[in-house]
Amino acid sequence: MNYRQLGRTPWKVADVSFGAWAIGGSWGQVSDTEAMGALNKAIDSGVNFIDTADVYGDGRSERLIAQLKKSRKQEIVVATKAGRRLPKQTVEGYSRQNLIAWVEDSLRNLACEAIDLLQLHCPPGAVYERPEVFGILDDLVKAGKLRYYGVSVQAVSEALKATEYPNVQSVQIIFNIFRQRPADEFFAVAKQRKVGILARVPLASGLLTGKLRQDSTFSGDDHRNFNRQGASFDVGETFSGVDYDAGLAAVEELRKLLPSGVTLSQFALRWILMFDAVTCAIPGGKRAEQVAENCHSSDLPPFSKEIMKAVRGIYEARIKPLVHSRW
Ligand SMILES: NC(=O)c1ccc[n+]([C@@H]2O[C@H](COP(=O)([O-])OP(=O)(O)OC[C@H]3O[C@@H](n4cnc5c(N)ncnc54)[C@H](OP(=O)(O)O)[C@@H]3O)[C@@H](O)[C@H]2O)c1
After folding, report:
1. Is 200 in the pocket of ligand 1 (CB under 6 A)?
2. Are 208 and 268 in contact (CB under 8 A)?
3. Cα dihedral: 97, 139, 8, 108 (round 10)
């Protein structure tokens, strides 16, 4: 496992870290035993950074992480998120009263005195025009409730705006082989402002593992079933907003590029690490075997220019027209 500096924080985090949404909820049933198995495997593989949110399984993901931290000796940095408890996303919802209540809830669930990194959880774009919201976060740092804060965003335009606030340490954004715009328009700015980048949805919700097929089915409580058209949250969070069949066709092209002994999941994650502006990828994993496979990608050799060019070619031809201008 290799480690990279996270923004201007003191932490060097595993470049393949762990996303804890699926062990919380919205991805079909995952038992506590499976979830703890996945988390423990991550730590055994060198992961020292976990991304979660208050709403993942209504606090379940945070509580499982608290259990993990209690049972392991290593330092584990936890990033959580706030904002999605609002019944309707409004700028006014990001009030001092609400932010304090969400933070207190997460502190209880995580069983800690200060949150390592709190991220605004894809708030409406207009929040980035409200310095007072970032002022509240600064106050929460001063009060010892947060160590650092950052944002999770949907669009590149929001990432650029958010990083104008001097104490934003990290931007979480969808970045994967099917979502390349952040590299074109945001990474240079993030590097210059010394802001960490958490690449979320790195496997395009499983499409980039190469295991999905046209007839794959998902249970009713899996967002790959209920959010395919964006019925519950932004459609971009499910399969990166890429049309399912178009994604499958692109995967067949990508398969031809696999070096021997490398799985498509590992290829997709190693591709992300080719961008030095990225702090880490945060793949979700429901089972220990998935986590072990994903973590191994950190140790793969860098890709050649030819491979990078071929991946970009597949993106340009098959995916870019579907997503590039949207996020
Ligand atoms: N708005 C936000 O801030 C936001 C939104 C989305 C995600 N996130 C964060 O980003 C993290 C990662 O994104 P994500 O979980 O949505 O998507 P992802 O990492 O692209 O996909 C994760 C899913 O792919 C499957 N998978 C993982 N590794 C695999 C492997 N080696 N082989 C086969 N299948 C594998 C698993 O599901 P199955 O086994 O069921 O296929 C897993 O749950 C989340 O956990 C969360 O922490 C944040």
Report:
1. yes
2. yes
3. -50
Residue 114 CB neighbours (<10 A): 16
Q: Is 179 in the pocket of ligand 1 (CB under 6 A)?
A: no
Tell me the torsion sign for CA atoms 188, 189, 190, 195.
Answer: positive
The count of other CB atoms within 10 Å of the CB of residue 235 is 16
Instruction: Count other Cβ atoms within 10 Å, centred on residue 101.
Output: 13
Place of tokens 């097929």: 213
**What's the predicted TM-score (pTM) here?**
0.98
Torsion sign over Cα 158, 159, 164, 167: positive
Among 205, 216, 223, say which to mutate for ligand 1: greatest number of ligand atoms within 8 Å of CB: 205
Q: To the nearest 10°, report the CA torsion of 185, 191, 193, 198.
A: 80
Segment 160-206, tens digit of pLDDT: 999 999 999 999 999 999 999 999 999 999 999 999 999 999 999 99
